[in-house]
Amino acid sequence: MDGAIHRRGGPAILEACRELRRMRYPDGLPTGEAVLTTAGNLPARFVAHTVGPIWDRDQPAAKLLASCYRNCLLLADQQGMESVAFPAISTGVYGYPKDQAAAVASQAIADTLAEAGSIRSVQLVFFSQADRDTFVQHQRFP
Hints:
- By secondary structure, this protein is of the alpha+beta class.
- It has one domain: 3-Layer(aba) Sandwich (Leucine Aminopeptidase, subunit E, domain 1), CATH 3.40.220.
- The chain has a two-stranded antiparallel ribbon with strand order 1-2. Strands 3-4 form a two-stranded parallel sheet.
- A hairpin with a 7-residue loop joins β1 and β2.
- α3 packs parallel to α4 and α4 packs across α5.
């Protein structure tokens, strides 16, 4: 997903990421944390960047994955955003089991929306219909 966002958003996003790394995160963004950058050429105000846990390596995986969603939503709320879209974080090359990721993501989103006043819509974007079906089974937010 990261590559697609950078290709479509153009060089402004990469430059903003490089600046964040140079100024705030010389060792890279820690797992579970989130930052916002420009959206470049994308039809959005910002892009939230987060690092999801790698399955069977980063522990506690569920807590770290929940932090990804929570921290992105809290940053969006701080900026007064009304809508946010997420991919299924960590379920691709990082190998997080999709059914477990779905349960964690759904609960984290539901819990955070209860305190994030500006956000009215959260969309989940999936690679396949099967991925969507897995997440829909675990959905806990409107």
